[in-house]
Amino acid sequence: MSWSTPPYLLADVSVRRVMLQVLVALLPGIAAYVWLIGPAIILQLLIATLAALLGEALMLRLRRRPLLLFLTDGSAIVTAWLVALAFPPLSPWWLTVVGVLFAIVVAKHLYGGLGQNPFNPAMIAFAACIVSFPALMSQWPALGLRLSLAEQFGIIAGLAPRVDAMSGATPLDALKTALKLGDGAVDVPTLLATQEVFGNFAGRGWEWVSTGYLLGGLWLWQRKVITWQAPAAFVGGLSLLAGILWAWNPQQFANPLFHLFSGGSLLGAFFIVTDPVSGSTTFRGKLIFGFLAGAIAYVIRVFGGYPDGVAFAVLLMNLCVPLIDMYTQAPIFGMKNPK
Amino acid sequence: MTHYIFLLVGAVLVNNVVLVKILGLCPFMGVSRKLETAFGMGAATTFVLTVATGASYIIDRYLLLPFGLEYLRTLSFIVTIAAIVQLTEMVIQKTSPLLHQVLGIYLPLITTNCAVLGVPLLNIANRHDFVESLLFGAGSAIGFSFVLVLFAGIRERVEGADVPPHFRGAAIAMVTAGLMSLAFMGFAGLDRYQ
Amino acid sequence: MISALAIMALGAVVLGAALGYASIRFRVEGDPLVEKIEAILPQTQCGQCGYPGCKPYAAAISAGEADINLCPPGGMDGVRKLADLLGREVKPLEAEEKPKQIAIIDEQTCIGCTLCIQACPVDAIVGAAKQMHTIIEPLCTGCELCVKPCPVECISMQPIAENIDNWKWKYPVFEIKRAA
Amino acid sequence: MLAKLFRFKGGVKPQTNKAISVHEPIGRAPLPARLFVPLHQSIGGAPNPLVQAGDSVLKGQLIGAADAWVSAAVHAPTSGRVLAVEEHVAAHPSGLPTLCVVIEPDGRDEWIERRPVDHHSLPPERVRELLRDAGVVGLGGAAFPSHAKLTPARAVAMEHLVINGAECEPFMTCDDMLMRERADEIVRGIAIFRELLSAREVLIGIEDNKQEAIAAMQEAVLRLAPDYRVVAVPTRYPAGGAKQLIRVLTGKEVPASRRSTELGVQCFNVATVYTAYRALACGEPVLSRIVTLTGNVERPRNWEVWLGTPMREVVALARPRADSSSFLMGGPMMGFEIPDLDAPVVKATNCIIAASPALFPPPPPEMPCIRCGACAEACPHELQPFELYWFARARNFGKTQEYYIFDCIECGCCSYVCPSHIPLVQYFRFAKSEIWAREREKQAADAAKERFELRNARAEREQAEKAERLARAASAKASEKRAPPDPGNKPAPESAPAVDQPPAAAGEVAMTAGDAEAIRKAAIAAAIERARSQRESAQPRNTDRLSAGQQREIAAVEARRAARSTAATAAASGTAAATDSGGAAVPPAGSRRDD
To answer: Residue D593: what pLDDT?
Structure first.
């Protein structure tokens, strides 16, 4: 009597496989990232993975849960990678570690581990770190900065001085700062056309990283790991708001394409708002969740005090998930036309 | 007009009375175990807080200021709030037993809700006029109710989660409130956008 | 100073008058809470809580005189429901929680004294003087009130056996633990 | 023949494994040495045994009569002697015993007199009764008494009669073989049901992986009843669920809260129809059923098995392989592990599968739910299994009902697709049985409360009556006494102030002890009665929830007043009245605790 609950037939699926597919889907984006920045991001991914596994192991040990089973489910690694990809690539090693540990220990395991966290752990890590270490979290490598592997390693390990050239900004931040400094004298189209940091349609090089995420996301959708509602609604919410303001005043507001392909928009759309644990689960709920997350992300990144708003937007929508789910339950079989 | 909207939205989200100003934590932690009670508490607080801001403004403007009795502000506000809460409870109990069943037990709790005292005092500190005071009061109250309901939703869900034994109950609620506060920090700076 | 006193006094009088008037004008009697509490209690009428029946206990809880953990037949489940209703903390049960039981009369020993019939709060015992008594099993609440009065100790409490009709599917985790 | 088909949402497509057991025709299983015929084989009331140990029975003889409308009779499958009517392990996941009639066959297989009837000539009620007494129940596995499903709704015209030959469970082929071999009887049986329900249209749904069965049924329909439609439905589990098949064939959705007849549709399994035909046209009650023996066995095949045959003997027919670790009754999706092979075959036993770890690998360890929604995609009833699971696991049963746990048909699709390998169905069954248990408890509590209150009311009434009697007797006696004025007797009013003194004070009154006693008792009782009526009539609002102590006080006050006003009953002691009333109103256990 080794098992006794029906059904006795099970499909060949597992959490591990789901997580592995998510990791695979991140690879195109990572490849573009390496091409853009250099191998530093690989190092960050390794640091994050290690920290995540250690944190996970520690928490599982403390909570007396089976170690091997949960360490190999891949969920900690997904969180770690998302943290590493959201953080600036040359942030000091301890920042990544702090972020990952905060995600794993506080956002995940205090709520009972896999599947029980109401907030997206990676986004909690990002929000906590940008609030606690705002300077470090906005130091992005300046464009065209070509550092050797040893130099990058030195910076991340804290051995080499953080060179001045590194205090660059993301295209989003650059645009915001320029607009603020220009105080009405500069306009977006000129900025986009003249400054080197803004590449073909978003930020130089960054648009390809985003394209990588887009490809990975589409693959996940094709593999049925994620559904289309949340990403589509996120993209829709973001571009709708961006489109309206752009149409109203193209001098002051960048076009939707710029917003979609810069910052964490597409990473968020395909890998963050699709997180089933902290996201909405109903058909309409996913649409609402994605749309509002996109809209809030836009508002925060354009009007708010932070360079990007995806993390905060997702967290704010995570807050609303129980209510959204409750009020968007689809009618069940036989209850569609109550007479 | 935009000024008023900014004030209202600012009070609801950006300067959320619970998650940003960290006022009114006792009912926030205490009455958020279930969604229905959170709704009840939210509605009751919204009513009382709005009335209290108006009453406090009138008392301050026409009673305390003319006589130079600013130093009695806290005292007189507390008394006023307590009286309003009591009156409200009695009236509701008599006129609508149904509503009283929903709100009844939360009403007395509002007396001890520091947000209800804090918001009128903030009004005076920010030199709001009567309309602004009311708007700020209503906005704060709506913000309070909003996060209370969201918090209750999450707590109901976390209730079923496999939370480590030491963190069950109040501890995980505190952690959740902290993370919510973190999320609301995303709104920082929005009300200063020009 | 005088004006301060005067104004505070005025405030006190006005508010006091308003409250006083309201407390007369809007007076309400009755306590709907008792019924809600009673609905949770198991209605065994056993008196193990120290109150004569479930309703008095409900009234005592509502009045704040009694704790919520005094009802052994209700079990921890009942305590939890009461805590939920009243917003109090869940406490461990005062007495030990027992499985559901019913009383069984040993019909050989019964002398037909009718004492148990008088003790039974739900009229679940039939019999007449000098005649053998028996318990109507579906009506027995397992309150144990009939056990003590019996002069020949012929009443015993027996746990209700599991049968196909009251059998329940078990919480699955145990089986999984075994399987793993 | 082309019909418009509808789709039900969800569903899964597991390996069907049906081909292995259809090579051989249906075999007739031998009679075992002992038959254990359970009396309770259907949903609803348990039939009462009509035989006792030592009786001899004939084949087809009624041994258990239906005891309610929703209940079905049970018959002796062969002639022989009743050895016992006793508890025997049941074909039930619990492995608990149930009341069985144990029959030792005499080998003669001697029929009781069979009375075929022509259902046209009988009123529908009579036909339904005959079906009940023939023990016709749903043979798809649910064992719901069929006659109870054969009453059309009054308000709604019966549109469709759906005949379920879909048989979507993997491994199972008993309906398939039945349709191949006995299509004529099935079609004739359908005619009976159609007439009873006066259904407009008959739809026979068969999954499209059973081409032979479809052909056989089409051939029979063409010959016997050309207006029936045999419809091939896409193979997708659980297309054979009654509600899913109704949806696929008619587009109607029957929620758990409604009966299908209210929507003008009813559904029966092919085997049920077959037995109904045998019951009426041949007068043969349900004595056997077709059981698929398959799985990890040498000789998978369908057998017609006598009800009551111990499963051990049935299983032996298929020669299970040595590594068979357990046996399942029903299909692999919804069946259960047979706890004890001594359990007999019953009307619900459609399939016995020998399981081995190779055939059904034990599930990987259960992981936490990641809310991926795969279960919701697969759920044919469009529920949210992950939410149900979340609340069932936390034992929050109220919430599970908000998420419609009772619409769950336990088909197992959710567990099948769950990447975390959570035994979801098990959680739902757990929640359902807990909810039922609670409802039972609640009902018992309500009944107990009612009885307790009735008892209290009766006690009060009896006391009042007694008091009245005594009071009458006392006043009669008093007036008798007063008539000849007794100089030695102190005037009553003088002793009135002595209310708070112990009753011994009454000794001063020059009266015979017996009289004094009677009068005192009467006074007390009268006082109680007055107090009670006062309580009931005067201020019901603030006095109906008094503590025992308060009741005592009031009774004391009332008694005192009574003592003052009634001159004659001077010696009435307030304290005595008070203690009496306090003690009478409450059981002794708690009466002193709340002082």
So the answer is: 38
CA-based nearest distance C94→chain B, Å:
22
Q: What is the DSSP string of A16-76?
A: HHHHHHHHHHHHHHHHHHHHHH-THHHHHHHHHHHHHHHHHHHHHHHHT--HHHHHTTSHH
Q: Cα(first)–Cα(last) distance of chain A, in Å?
A: 47
Q: Is residue A222 part of a domain?
A: yes
Q: Are residues D202 and D119 in the same domain?
A: yes
Q: What does A18-32 look like in DSSP terms, one character per residue? A: HHHHHHHHHHHHHHH
Hey, is the C-beta of B94 within 8 angstroms of any chain C C-beta?
A: yes
Residues A331 and A283: beta-carbon distance below 8 Å: no
Q: Does C32-86 match C101-159 in CATH topology?
A: no
Closest residue by Cα to residue D423 from D359, D337, D486: D337
Residue D491 gets which letter from DSSP? P
pLDDT in tens, D310-343: 999 999 999 999 999 899 999 999 999 999 999 9
Report the distance separating Cα D258 and Cα D356, nearest Å.
40
Residues of C with CB below 8 A from D429's CB?
A: 169
**pLDDT confidence tier of residue C75, bands split at 50, 70 and 90:** confident
Alpha carbons within 13 A on the beta-carbon side of D152: 19
Contact B186 A109 (CB under 8 A): no
Furthest-apart CA pair in chain C: how many Å?
91
Q: Which residue of C has its CA nearest to A3?
A: C179
This model of the complex carries an ipTM of 0.87
**CATH architecture under which domain C101-159 falls:** 2-Layer Sandwich (3.30)
Which chain A residue is nearest to residue C179, measuring alpha carbons?
Answer: A2
The per-residue pLDDT for A234 is 96
Q: Per mean pLDDT, which range of A256-270, B77-91, B97-111, D4-18 is the poorest?
A: B97-111
Domain residue limits, chain C = 32-86, 101-159
H helix intervals, B35-129: 35-59, 73-95, 97-103, 107-111, 114-125
* CA A261/CA D44 separation, integer angstroms: 64
Mean pLDDT of C82-96: 78
Sign, Cα dihedral of D437, D439, D445, D447? negative
Cα(D128)–Cα(D130) distance, integer angstroms: 5
**Which residue from B138, A99, C171, A269 is spatially nearest to D393, judged by alpha carbons?**
C171
> For residue C3, what are its two tokens?
């004006």
Between CA C16 and CA B83 the distance in angstroms is 8
Q: Report which of residues A338 and D61 the model is more confident about.
A: D61
β-strand pairing of D288-295 with D326-329: unpaired
Please, which residues 392-411 of chain D have a Cβ atom closer than 8 Å to chain B? 393-394, 396
- C-alpha to C-alpha distance for D141 and D481, rounded to whole angstroms: 83
Q: Which stretches within A162-264 are classed as H helix?
A: 171-182, 188-194, 206-222, 229-248, 256-261
A152 Cβ neighbours under 8 A, 6+ residues apart? A38, A39, A40, A43, A90
Whether the CB-CB separation of C48 and C95 falls below 8 Å is answered with yes
Record the tokens describing residue A236, joined without a space. 């829709």
| Dist. CA A65–CA A72, nearest whole Å | 13
Architecture of domain C32-86 in this structure? Orthogonal Bundle (1.10)
**Minimal CA separation from A306 to chain B, in Å:** 7
Distance between start and end Cα atoms, chain D: 84
Distance CA A83, CA A96 (A): 8
pLDDT of A178 higher than 80: no
| Domain-ending residue, one of A168, A201, A233 | A168
Q: Which two tokens stand for residue D105?
A: 């066959």
Residues D500 and D497: their CA atoms lie apart, in Å, by: 8
DSSP state of D505: G
The pTM (predicted TM-score) of the whole model is: 0.83
- Number of C-beta neighbours around residue C58 at 10 A: 26
Tell which of D437, D458, D479 closes a domain: D458
| Contact of D329 with D352, CB cutoff 8 Å | yes
